C-alpha cells in the first residue's frame, strides 16, 4: 500500500481524507493544514494524525494529495516533487501556465508521477459514453451553480468552466484555433458568469457557459457528431445517445424515420448505455495509485491539467 498524506483539510480536503482512509490502495498517514485551529478540529472529529509541518508530512509518505487554495499549489507542489514524492493535485493545477510547465519539468527530472483532480473525467455518466464520442463537431456545455462564497477567490472560469474545458480537450483531438469569450462580475471581484466559444483547427466548435449566480444547479454537455447526438448530465449522472442509420426498406410501424430534401431516409434510435454508479473522487485517487504501482500514465496528467489551465486563462484574457 502506498503511504499518502493530505495537504489541506478544508471542505474538499476532509472528503479526500475520508476516502483515502477507506481505500484499500493507500495507507493514510495523516495531514497538514496551516490553519492550526482547523487542523485540531479535524483531528478531534475524525482522529487523523496531524503533522507539524509540510516538510514532516512529505518525508513520511510516498504520495502527497494537495487540496489547498490554488494560489498555494505551485510552491507546495515544488516541494513535494523535489523531495521525490508522487503528487496528486486538485484543479486547477497552478495559478499560471508557466508555473504548471515548471512542475512538469521538475516531475520529469525527479521521475515522479503527477495527476490533476479533474474529477468530471470520472463521472460515471461521462465514462459510460466517452468511448462513443468520436470526432464531435459541435459541443455545448452549461455548468451553472447557486452562489457559494467558497469559490469566489478565482474567476468562474477557473472555478467551474475548467471542468468542461478539460472534458472537451479529452475528446477533441485537435489544437485550439481561436477563443472568443465574455464575462461579467455580479457579486464577486472576478467574473461570476462567463461564456466562451472555442474553435478548433479541425472545425469543431465548443460553446461553454459557466455561472455561479444561478437559481438552480446544472451541469450538462451535449456532443454533436456525424449521425449521433450524445448528452451527458454530470449532475444527475445520466446520459443519452441518439443515433441515426440508413432506414430499412420496410421499417416497423414504431420506427422513427427522417427524410431529407434529397429523399434520403434515416432511422433514429436510442442507444443509451448503463451508467455504473461510482465515487468519482475515490476512483480518481485509486487510478493514480494504479498508475504509480504499474508505472503507467495517470488518467489526467500534469500536461493535460496544464493545457486546461492554459485554455482557461486564454478565455479569461479574451474578456
Q: Please, could you describe this protein's structure?
A:
By secondary structure, the chain is of the alpha/beta class. The chain has two domains: 2-118 and 280-301, Rossmann fold, CATH 3.40.50.720; 121-278 and 311-317, Dihydrodipicolinate Reductase, domain 2. 34% of the residues lie in helices and 28% in strands. The chain has nine helices and 14 strands. The protein has helices at 11-22, 36-46, 54-60, 70-82, 97-110, 124-129, 156-171, 280-294, 302-317; strands at 2-7, 26-32, 63-66, 86-90, 114-117, 138-144, 176-184, 193-200, 205-211, 218-225, 228-233, 238-246, 256-259, 265-270. The strands form two sheets. The chain has a nine-stranded mixed sheet. A hairpin with a 4-residue loop joins strand 8 and strand 9 (205-211). Helix 4 runs parallel beside helix 5, helix 5 runs antiparallel to helix 9 (302-317) and helix 7 (156-171) crosses helix 9 (302-317). The chain starts with a strand and ends with a helix. The model has no long low-confidence stretch (mean pLDDT 95).
Amino acid at each position: 500500500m502506498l503511504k499518502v498524506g493530505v495537504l489541506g483539510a478544508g471542505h474538499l480536503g476532509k472528503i479526500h481524507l475520508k476516502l483515502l482512509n477507506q481505500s484499500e490502495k493507500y495507507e493514510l498517514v495523516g495531514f497538514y493544514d496551516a490553519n492550526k485551529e482547523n487542523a485540531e478540529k479535524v483531528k478531534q472529529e475524525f482522529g487523523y494524525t496531524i503533522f507539524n509541518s509540510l516538510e514532516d508530512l512529505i518525508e513520511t509518505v510516498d504520495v502527497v494529495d494537495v487540496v489547498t487554495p490554488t494560489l498555494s499549489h505551485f510552491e507546495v507542489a515544488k516541494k513535494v516533487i523535489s523531495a521525490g514524492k508522487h503528487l496528486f493535485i486538485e484543479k486547477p493545477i497552478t495559478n499560471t501556465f508557466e508555473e504548471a510547465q515548471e512542475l512538469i519539468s521538475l516531475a520529469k527530472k525527479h521521475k515522479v508521477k503527477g495527476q490533476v483532480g479533474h474529477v468530471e473525467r470520472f463521472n460515471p455518466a461521462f465514462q459510460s459514453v466517452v468511448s462513443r464520442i468520436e470526432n464531435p463537431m459541435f459541443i455545448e456545455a452549461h455548468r451553472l451553480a447557486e452562489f457559494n462564497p467558497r469559490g469566489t477567490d478565482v474567476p468562474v472560469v477557473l472555478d467551474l468552466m475548467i471542468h468542461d474545458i478539460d472534458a472537451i480537450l479529452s475528446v477533441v483531438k485537435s489544437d485550439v484555433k481561436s477563443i472568443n469569450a465574455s464575462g461579467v462580475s455580479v457579486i464577486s471581484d472576478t467574473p461570476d458568469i462567463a461564456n466562451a466559444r472555442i474553435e478548433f483547427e479541425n472545425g469543431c466548435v465548443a460553446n461553454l457557459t459557466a455561472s455561479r449566480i444561478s437559481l438552480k444547479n446544472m451541469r450538462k454537455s451535449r456532443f454533436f457528431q456525424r449521425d449521433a447526438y450524445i448528452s451527458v448530465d454530470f449532475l444527475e449522472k445520466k446520459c443519452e445517445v441518439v443515433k441515426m442509420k440508413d432506414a430499412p426498406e420496410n421499417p416497423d410501424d414504431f420506427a422513427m424515420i427522417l427524410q431529407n430534401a434529397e429523399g434520403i431516409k434515416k432511422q433514429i434510435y436510442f442507444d443509451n448505455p448503463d451508467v455504473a454508479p461510482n465515487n468519482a473522487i475515490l476512483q480518481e485517487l485509486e487510478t493514480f495509485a494504479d498508475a504509480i504501482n504499474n508505472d503507467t500514465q495517470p488518467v489526467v496528467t500534469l500536461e493535460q491539467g496544464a493545457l486546461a489551465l492554459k485554455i482557461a486563462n486564454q478565455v479569461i484574457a479574451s474578456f
